[in-house]
Design goal:
single chain; alpha+beta; 2 domains; five-stranded mixed beta sheet
C-alpha cells in the first residue's frame, strides 16, 4: 500500500488550517488517514508548524512519500535533515553523536533566523503603529484647531452684532434738538405787533 505524507484541510472559509497526515495515496484528500503527524497554520506570521518528528521519520523510513508542501514543512522543522543523517548513520558514514551535533547546530541556526524574523516583524509593527498614532494625532490636532477658529469667529460675530445693537439703541434714545427760529420767522412774528401799535397811535391822534 503506497503511503503519502500530505496535508488535510480543515478550518473555515478564508482561514484554512491543515493537518499533516500519513494516508493511503488512493484515499481522498480530506478522507481517512492512517496517522495524524502534526498541524500547519498559515494564518500566523510566521506560519506555525508543529510536527511529531519521531513518527514522521518512522514513516519516511518505511517508504512514505511526502508531497511537495509536506516536504517543505518537514524541511522547515529539520525532519528531512534528520532522516538524511539517520541514513548516513545506518551506512556507517558518521556516528550517531556526529549526526546529533549536526542536527543541533542546524536547528540552532534555524531558530536564530526565525527569531530574527519575529523581531523584524515586531519592529515593523511597532513602527507602523507609531506612524498611525502620529497621523491620527495630526488629524485630531487639526480638528481641534479648526473648531477653536470657528468658535473664535462666532464670538467675534456675536460681539460685532452686540456692538451694533447697542449703537442703534443709543441713537434712538438721544433727544431731538429743536431748531432755533430763523430771522425771517422772527420778522414775521414781530411785524404784526408793530403794525397794531401804529394803528392805535393813529387812532389816538
Amino acid at each position: 500500500m503506497p503511503v503519502k505524507i500530505r496535508l488535510q484541510r480543515h478550518g473555515k472559509k478564508g482561514k484554512p488550517f491543515y493537518w499533516v497526515v500519513a494516508a493511503d495515496a488512493r484515499a481522498k484528500r480530506d478522507g481517512r488517514y492512517l496517522e495524524k503527524l502534526g498541524t500547519y497554520n498559515p494564518n500566523t506570521n510566521p506560519a506555525t508548524v508543529d510536527i511529531n518528528e519521531e513518527n514522521t521519520v518512522n514513516w519516511l523510513e518505511k517508504g512514505a512519500q511526502p508531497t511537495d508542501t509536506a516536504r517543505t514543512l518537514m524541511s522547515y522543522k529539520g525532519i528531512m535533515l534528520r532522516h538524511h543523517l539517520n541514513g548516513g548513520v545506518r551506512k556507517g558514514a558518521l556516528t550517531q553523536e556526529e549526526a546529533d551535533k549536526k542536527l543541533a547546530a542546524w536547528l540552532e541556526e534555524k531558530d536564530a533566523k526565525i527569531q530574527a524574523k519575529k523581531e523584524g516583524l515586531t519592529k515593523e509593527e511597532t513602527d507602523a503603529r507609531a506612524k498611525r498614532f502620529a497621523a491620527e494625532k495630526a488629524v485630531s490636532d487639526k480638528r481641534l484647531a479648526d473648531a477653536a477658529a470657528a468658535e473664535a469667529d462666532a464670538d467675534a460675530t456675536i460681539a460685532e452684532e452686540a456692538a451694533a445693537a447697542e449703537t442703534a439703541s443709543v441713537e434712538e434714545e438721544a433727544p431731538v434738538e429743536e431748531e432755533a427760529p430763523t430771522e425771517e420767522v422772527l420778522a414775521k412774528d414781530e411785524a404784526p405787533i408793530a403794525s397794531k401799535e401804529e394803528a392805535k397811535e393813529e387812532k389816538k391822534e
